[in-house]
Design goal:
This protein has helices spanning about 240-245, 250-255, and strands at about 5, 25-30, 35-40, 45-50, 55-60, 65-70, 95-100, 105-110, 120-125, 130-135, 145-150, 160-165, 165-170, 180, 195, 200, 215-220, 225-230, 235-240, 260-265, 270-275, 280-285, 290-295, 300-305, 315-320, 320-325, 345-350. The chain is mainly beta. The protein has one domain: TolB, C-terminal domain (Neuraminidase), CATH 2.120.10.30. The structure holds 2-acetamido-2-deoxy-beta-D-glucopyranose (7 copies).
Length: about 350
C-alpha cells in the first residue's frame, strides 16, 4: 500500500556544494520530483514521478520536511491492475500540477488511452484540501490521450491545456465546454525528436526509433494577451488569447486558428517553462541541462548551466524573486527513463517575481 508519510531525506552537507554561482539546493528529496508550487503563505506542493511504472503522486511538503499525500490517499492510490480502482477519482498519469491564479491547486491527469474518466483536470481547494472542480477531458481530446499542462486566462474563466498529441485544448471552466484546436498543425507538431544531454531520446518502437512529443509547454503573458506554446522539441509560438476564447463559440475560427499564430522565439528541447511578472519565459533545456531566458521581445539567452539540472521540469517563481528548479531525473535509457537521483530542487535568483495571473 501507499505510505502516508514518507520522510524527505535531507543531507545538509550538500547545501554548500553548489558549483554554479547563485544556484542553491533548497531541498533534497527521497523521490524524484517533477514539479513544485508554492502558495502565497508558503505551502509547498510537489508532483513526484519516481518511476515509469507507478502512477505519479502529489504530495504536500510540510515544514518538518516530511511529505504527505495530497489532497488525500484515495486520489493517489490508482492501481491499473485492480478493477476496484477508480480512474475517474484518482490520479492515473499526472503531468501538469500547479497553483492557479484562483488559488486552487490544479492537477492535469493525462490518463490512459481507452480508460474512461482517466484524463481530467482536477482542482483542489486549499482551504478544504478537497477536490471541488473536476473536468473530464474524454469529449475534448483526440484519439490518443495527451493532456499535459494547464494555464489560465486573465479572468480565470478559461483554461488552456497542452496536448502532446499535437493540439491545444480550450476549456470554459464555468460550463465545462471545451474544444481541441491547432490539431496536427505546424505549430503544434514537433519538428524533431526530444533531445537529452547531446543526443536524441530513444523511442519505444525498437532500435533506431525516437521519442517525439507535440504541443507541451504553454505560458500566458502577465497581461493575459498572449498564449505562448511549443512542442516539446522547442520552437516557441504565440497567439492572442482573444482568438482562443472566441473560438470556444466560433467553429470556423476554431478550425482556422493556425492563421493567427506566429513564430516567436528559438527554443531548445524542453522539460518545462515558467513566466515572470515582466513576461520573461524560463525554459529548461534538456539537451544541454541549462536554463534559457526568453524576453517578451523574443530574444533568447542561456542564463544557467549545470549538469545537476537533470531534466528540470515544472518550475515556480516566488515573490522573493527566486526561480525554483526541480531536477526531475528523467533520463532516457536504462530501466525506464529515471535516474537514481539525487533528487534536488534548486533555487536561482532572477530579476522579477511571479506573474500575477499565473501564480496565486
Ligand atoms: C527542511 O529543509 C530545509 C532545506 O534543506 C532546511 O533549511 C530546514 O532546516 C529543514 N527543516 C527541518 C525542520 O528539518
Ligand atoms: C494492484 O492491484 C493488484 C491486483 O489487485 C495487486 O496484486 C497489487 O498488489 C496492487 N498493487 C499495489 C501497489 O497495491
Ligand atoms: C465514461 O464514458 C461515458 C461515455 O462517454 C460517459 O457518459 C461517462 O460519464 C464516463 N464516465 C466517467 C467517470 O468519466
Ligand atoms: C475554497 O473553499 C472555501 C471554503 O468553502 C471557500 O470559501 C473558497 O471560496 C474556496 N476557494 C475557491 C478558490 O473557490
Ligand atoms: C495527427 O497525426 C497523428 C500522427 O500522424 C495521427 O495518428 C492522428 O490521427 C492525427 N490526428 C488528427 C486529428 O488528424
Ligand atoms: C552526459 O553525457 C556525457 C557523455 O556524453 C556523460 O559523461 C555525462 O555523464 C552525461 N551527463 C548526464 C547528466 O547524464
Ligand atoms: C463561458 O461560459 C459562460 C457561461 O455560459 C459564458 O458567460 C462565458 O462567456 C463563457 N466564456 C467564454 C470565453 O466563452
Amino acid at each position: 500500500m501507499i505510505n502516508l508519510l514518507c520522510v524527505a531525506l535531507l543531507s545538509t552537507s550538500v547545501l554548500a556544494d553548489a558549483v554554479t554561482p547563485g544556484l542553491e539546493i533548497a531541498f533534497s528529496l527521497e523521490r524524484a520530483t517533477q514539479g513544485i508550487s508554492i502558495s502565497a503563505n508558503g505551502r509547498k506542493f510537489l508532483s513526484q514521478r519516481y518511476s515509469t511504472t507507478n502512477s505519479p503522486q502529489i504530495v504536500e511538503l510540510l515544514d518538518d520536511n516530511s511529505t504527505v499525500l495530497y489532497p488525500d490517499v484515495a486520489w493517489n492510490s490508482y492501481n491499473a491492475s485492480d478493477s476496484n480502482s477508480d480512474p475517474s477519482l484518482s490520479f492515473v498519469d499526472v503531468d501538469g500540477a500547479r497553483l492557479g491564479p484562483d488559488g486552487r491547486y490544479w492537477v492535469v491527469d493525462g490518463g490512459t488511452t481507452g480508460v474512461n474518466g482517466s484524463s481530467k483536470l482536477v482542482g483542489v481547494n486549499l482551504t478544504t484540501n478537497s477536490v471541488d472542480k473536476l473536468y473530464y477531458l474524454e469529449d475534448i481530446q483526440g484519439p490518443y490521450v495527451g493532456a499535459d499542462d494547464v494555464r489560465f486566462s486573465k479572468d480565470t474563466e478559461v483554461a488552456y491545456l497542452s496536448d502532446i498529441s499535437n493540439a491545444l485544448m480550450i476549456l470554459n471552466l464555468t460550463t465545462g465546454h471545451g474544444i481541441r484546436v491547432l490539431s496536427n498543425t505546424t505549430s503544434s507538431m514537433p519538428y524533431s525528436p526530444i533531445a537529452y544531454n547531446g543526443t536524441w531520446v530513444p523511442g519505444s518502437d525498437g532500435a533506431g526509433s525516437f521519442s517525439w512529443a507535440g504541443l507541451d509547454q504553454i505560458e500566458v503573458s502577465p497581461d493575459g494577451k498572449y498564449l505562448y506554446y511549443q512542442a516539446c522539441s522547442g520552437g516557441l509560438y504565440r497567439i492572442e488569447t482573444k482568438y482562443l476564447n472566441a473560438a470556444l463559440h466560433d467553429p470556423t475560427l476554431a478550425a482556422n486558428l493556425e492563421d493567427y499564430t506566429t513564430r516567436f522565439a528559438f527554443t531548445p528541447s524542453t522539460g518545462g517553462t515558467t513566466i515572470d511578472a515582466d513576461g520573461n519565459i524560463y525554459v529548461s533545456d534538456t539537451q544541454t541541462l541549462s536554463i534559457w531566458k526568453v524576453t517578451p521581445e523574443g530574444y533568447t539567452s542561456i542564463i544557467l548551466q549545470d549538469d545537476r539540472l537533470l531534466w528540470t521540469d515544472l518550475m515556480w517563481i516566488t515573490a522573493d524573486k527566486k526561480l525554483w528548479l526541480p531536477a526531475s531525473q528523467m533520463r532516457p535509457g536504462g530501466d525506464g527513463l529515471m535516474a537514481a537521483g539525487p533528487n534536488y530542487i534548486f533555487t536561482y535568483p532572477i530579476d522579477a517575481g511571479p506573474s500575477p495571473i499565473d501564480h496565486a
